[in-house]
Amino acid sequence: MQEQAIVWRHAGDDIGLVPTMGALHAGHDSLITRARRENQRVVVSVFVNPKQFGPHEDFLKYPRPFDQDRARLEALGVDAIFNPPVDQIYPPAFKTRVDPGPLGEVLEGKSRPGHFGGVLTVVLKLLNLTQPKRAYFGQKDFQQVVLVRQLVRDLALPVRVVVVSTVREPDGLAMSSRNAYLDPAQRRLAPNVRQALTEAARAFTAGETEPAELERLTTDRLAVAPGVEIDYVAVVDETTLSRPQQASPGSVLAVAVKLGSIRLIDNVVLGAERL
Ligand code: PAF
Asked: Is the CB of 108 under 6 A from ligand 1?
């Protein structure tokens, strides 16, 4: 992969990388379509990264419909599908781990210790292997975006991070490979997450800037849907992830919930979306 990438770069082609864990959906399609528009070469990595799963998480049962993914990627006209085996990315002698620092320990990182260390370790390796000029990430994983940007800035990586809006089901549920785990009753409850975020974002647009009040509105709206267990609801600054004194346009309202054993995350950038 790296040799091919170097040949492309030497020929003057820009490479766009779309890192994925497979089980592709319309959200991935929009990352790939954007990458296709902006680069001569598009590489999609399909790699379920063991290092970003906790010991009690779903690494083993994470969906891996590779034949379906390959057909989808061929139809989208990507130049390379990079689907390495785990022991090629992490051979037995592999020891290095990227430490995301304090921003890796809040929100998702608090509920999933070690998750972002695993994400940044594999992202750095994928960037080195694929040599992209641009790398594409979805806004749904907003904290991941913040940490990848930090990685790129702190380590002076020669890549531009491009963030693409969340793609949603018609009822508002953010597309995610994990949605496939939802049973019909959970699937019916899941759109409450987006509705709660939308209502709080509307309150912001109408003048409510108290983080605690925006969080309370979200929490109260989620309480209407019994079976949706809140992990966190937080208004945060879009770069520092700290709680602002007052929410302002660009602040992010982020939510994680559990429906049974399935964890869903979503967020809204306050003042940025037409609701
Ligand atoms: O967002 C994902 O699918 C993963 O975290 C990523 C970026 C592919 C790293 O494994």
From this structure: no
Ligand 1 binding pocket mutation candidate from 52, 139, 162 (most atoms within 8 A of CB): 52
State which amino acid sits at residue 80.
A
Residue pair 271/205 in contact (Cβ under 8 Å)? The answer is yes
pLDDT tens, residue by residue, 116-161: 999 999 999 999 999 999 999 999 999 999 999 999 999 999 999 9
Other Cβ atoms closer than 10 A to 33:
17
Which of 223, 166, 181 lies closest to 31, judged by CA? 166
Q: What is the pTM of this model?
A: 0.97
Encoded tokens for 221: 């709206």
State yes or no: pLDDT of 255 exceeds 90: yes
Q: Is 119 in the pocket of ligand 1 (CB under 6 A)?
A: yes
Measured in angstroms, how far is the CA atom of residue 246 from the centroid of ligand 1? 31
Give the residue among 56, 55, 59, 51 at the shortest CA–CA distance from 22.
59
Q: Which of 81, 47, 76, 79 is nearest to 64 (CA)?
A: 47
Cα diameter, the chain: 57
Looking at the annotation, which residues are catalytic?
28
Position 60 scores a pLDDT of 95
Distance from C-alpha of 259 to C-alpha of 44, rounded to nearest angstrom: 30
**Residue 18: is its pLDDT beyond 90?**
yes
Bridge partners for 163 per DSSP: 137
